[in-house]
Amino acid sequence: MRIKLVDIDNRLSIKYNKQDDVFSWGVDNAYPSLVNSLINSSVTAKQCVDLNSKYLYGKGFEFASGIKDKSSLIVNKRGVNINQLLRIVTREFSGQNNLFLHINYNALYQVTSVDMLSCEDGRIGKNDSTGYSGKYIVYDNWDKSKGKKIEKKDYNIIDKYNPNPAVIDAQVKSAGGWNKYKGQILHITSDYNELYSLSDIDSVVYDADSEFQAALFKNSGLRKGFFGAKLFVVKPFSSDSERKDFENTINDLKGSENSSGVLLLESNAESDVLSEQFLIQDINSNINDKQFESSEASSAKNIRKAFGIPSILIEDSDNSIFGNSGELLLQAKQMHWDNKEEERQIIVEAFEMLFSNFAKPINPTNDWSITPIFKTQTNE
């Protein structure tokens, strides 16, 4: 895995890129890819995103829990139902603080499908003469992981969300008819003052990378270092075939998946002393776990704070979990549930806005409440 860290002040530089016809998301236009790489390579960051997504999702929409036939809740051609879409959305929002929702309509201007597009693929298109950006560019190689060149011919250009029938009519006409119309994109951010919102991991990118580098160093020590290695000192072999037979025998005796390394030294001359003719010696490991404890603990704490998670919910030490009462744990859960209310509301309002005009009655009650993770402070 390659993680490219760029200068702090320029990491989320948002400028119009004339060459690519988009507003670049980061100095290299690959900020979402950097965020995903950091999250997936940092055990603490991944745990934070997993936990925050659970506190946004709760137990799903309350109205959907009582519906046995989940096929009636399917919201797009992929066969995803309303709660599955919510789960996908909350995971993306927890990591990126941005969402791109793709909406399709029928000729009655009703929404026929809603799906999520990855932040790695979505970019805001150029402004028109009035300063309005009415297009989104969907493309799967902004980070150039699939090729060094941006291919505009592969752009998927989609209109910005606007449910006004007159606007949809104009978009359909411009596309060349309903059979060529690609629908609209609703872009949601946690900070509406910015074109693209910062991820929660932004302030701790180096801490997340430090976790990855520490794990990589220890792994390299196990794979390429002297951990579990043996030194064999033997008398001179009489022939190459004898030497090869000995090496094959040693290979047969090595541990699982050849995990134990062997260093073979052949004496220059024979000796009458047995210890000089054949010697097996352990080679000590060069890995010192204590060397990383302080820095790893500091990095984990900073990452947890960046994602706003109480230590009792994520740290598994005896002092933080088993040393505290169940009441303190419940209070922490309640506090974190309350802290995520604004983000939950952003998502709920988007679902309510889109599905209130859905072609089939997904939620006749129009109650979009999310079931909490726990019902009361005394019962989970």
From TrEMBL:
This is Phage portal protein. It comes from the Bacteria.
